[in-house]
Amino acid sequence: MPSALPTTIQPTSPPTTPTPGGPTPHHPSTASAIAFAALLLIALFIAWRISLRTHPWTRCPKCKGDPRSYHPIFSRHFALCPRCNGTGRVLRKGAPPQ
Ligand SMILES: [Zn+2]
């Protein structure tokens, strides 16, 4: 009795699903987004460093730029801000020493 089924057997390839714990495929858009974010952070860091060199001073946070505190009764007497030594300005964080 002749068989109606084909006699050739095609080899099947194993499924190409990634194994758990194995290397995960990198999505191209995710990699480019990470590269863009890294470049943006580097550009912001460089801009911050340039800003520190061109404008190293900021207003004193203790006296708000007004370093004289006057006596409540003797209005001609005053004290200077101890944080900024009476200058009303302090160096920004990260600024090079002057
Ligand atoms: Zn001050």
Number of discrete helical segments: 1
- Which regions have little confidence, pLDDT < 50, spanning 5+ residues? none
- Cofactors and ligands present? zinc ion
Radius of gyration: 35 Å
Task: List strands and helices in order, with pairings.
Elements lengths: L27 H27 L2 E3 L8 E3 L7 E3 L8 E3 L7
Antiparallel strand pairs: 1-4, 2-3
Zinc ion (ZN) binds next to loops.
Description:
There is one protein chain. 28% of the residues lie in helices and 12% in strands. The protein has 98 residues and is α+β, with helices and mostly antiparallel strands. The chain has a domain at 46-98. The strands form two sheets. The chain has a two-stranded antiparallel ribbon. A two-stranded antiparallel sheet has the order 2-3. Strand 2 and strand 3 form a beta hairpin. The termini are far apart. The mean pLDDT is 85. The structure holds zinc ion. Zinc ion (ZN) binds next to loops. Zinc ion is lined by residues 60, 62-63, 67, 81, 83-84, 88.
